[in-house]
């Protein structure tokens, strides 16, 4: 709990009420600069992949990525919501290029994820300035208390997921989540959320980080799951985890803590 200008910020209360909350200035500018460089580097390594699709399958052999999601400042936030025994389920850069970045249609994350039980929290790390103009995250406050709706395909418009929630969404209730680099938005797996296309001259990149308690089972057929990493506390017995990747300068992104990952 923190106090700003005489107002009390209680993230757990906000999260329970609205399904999301925001933490400001979580990561320092030096690390955020490295994250921005990492996104550029990944784009060069995988030119065949749209920048909105730099997802978890690339994580298992990426020491910087694992170092980033293991940062104690992020884990301390995750611990507020899932407890002290923490694993990574998945992580995904959604980088929207200037003028051409695709929208993410309205959806609920829990409709897609192979988790049992659905105890998971998303930290959305703002890599760039995230604004209404460049396609920031949008949420429907309180919608996390709704049932999980069906999804339907939508290929009429080019979009990141190719699917959307199959019920009508009242966009007049949407809140735009405007963030600075290093800010973190946290949201519930059931909240209805999405983002619009980037028609601005400025890139909009965010990193989604999905943390689970180690008591939540990843039920996907591929085991260990490509992005399953034990990060803090007791690893438990319900999942197997990827080994920590070792840094090799000839094939990995260079970063300031790389020597500790060699």
Which structural class matches the secondary elements?
A: alpha+beta
CATH class: Mainly Beta
Rg over CA atoms:
18 Å
Strand content: 25-35%
Low-confidence stretches: 1-6
- Number of folding domains? 1
The strand order across the widest sheet is 3-12-7-14-4-16
Mean pLDDT, all residues? 95
Fraction of residues in helix: 10-25%
GO molecular function, one term: 2-oxoglutarate-dependent dioxygenase activity
Protein name: Phytanoyl-CoA dioxygenase
Pfam family, one: PhyH
Organism: Streptomyces oceani
Looking at this protein, list some descriptive labels.
dioxygenase, disordered N terminus, 4-stranded antiparallel sheet, 6-stranded antiparallel sheet, Jelly Rolls, 16% helix, 262 residues, Phytanoyl-CoA dioxygenase, Phytyl_CoA_dOase-like, 4 helices, oxidoreductase
Structure characterization notes:
- By secondary structure, the protein is α+β, with helices and mostly antiparallel strands.
- It has a single domain (49-243), classed as Jelly Rolls (Sandwich), CATH 2.60.120.
- Helices cover 16% and strands 26% of the residues.
- The longest helix is centred in the N-terminal third of the chain and has 17 residues, at 29-45.
- The termini are far apart.
- The model is unreliable at 1-6 (pLDDT under 50).
Short summary of the structure?
GO terms for molecular function: 2-oxoglutarate-dependent dioxygenase activity; iron ion binding. The protein is α+β, with helices and mostly antiparallel strands. The protein has 4 helices and 16 strands.
């Amino acid at each position: 709990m923190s106090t700003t200008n005489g107002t009390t910020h209680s993230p757990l209360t906000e999260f329970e009420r609205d399904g999301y909350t925001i933490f400001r200035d979580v990561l320092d500018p030096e690390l955020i600069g490295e994250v921005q460089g990492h996104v550029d580097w990944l784009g060069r390594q995988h030119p065949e992949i749209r920048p909105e699709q730099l997802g978890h399958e690339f994580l298992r052999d990426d020491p910087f990525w694992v170092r980033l999601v293991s940062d104690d400042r992020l884990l301390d936030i995750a611990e507020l919501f899932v407890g002290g025994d923490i694993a990574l389920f998945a992580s995904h850069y959604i980088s929207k290029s200037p003028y051409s970045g695709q929208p993410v249609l309205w959806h609920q994350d829990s409709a897609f994820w192979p988790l049992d039980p659905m105890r998971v929290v998303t930290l959305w790390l703002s890599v760039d300035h995230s604004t209404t103009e460049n396609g920031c995250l949008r949420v429907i406050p309180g919608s996390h208390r709704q049932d999980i709706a069906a999804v339907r395909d939508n290929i009429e418009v080019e979009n990141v997921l190719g699917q959307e929630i199959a019920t009508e969404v009242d966009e007049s209730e949407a809140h735009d989540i405007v963030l600075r680099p290093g800010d973190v938005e946290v949201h519930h797996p059931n909240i209805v959320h999405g983002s619009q296309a980037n028609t601005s001259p400025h890139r909009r990149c965010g990193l989604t980080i999905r943390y689970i308690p180690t008591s939540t089972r990843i039920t996907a057929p591929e085991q260990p799951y490509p992005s399953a990493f034990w990060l803090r506390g007791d690893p438990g017995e319900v999942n197997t985890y990827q080994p920590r990747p070792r840094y090799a300068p000839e094939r990995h992104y260079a970063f300031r803590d790389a020597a500790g990952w060699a």
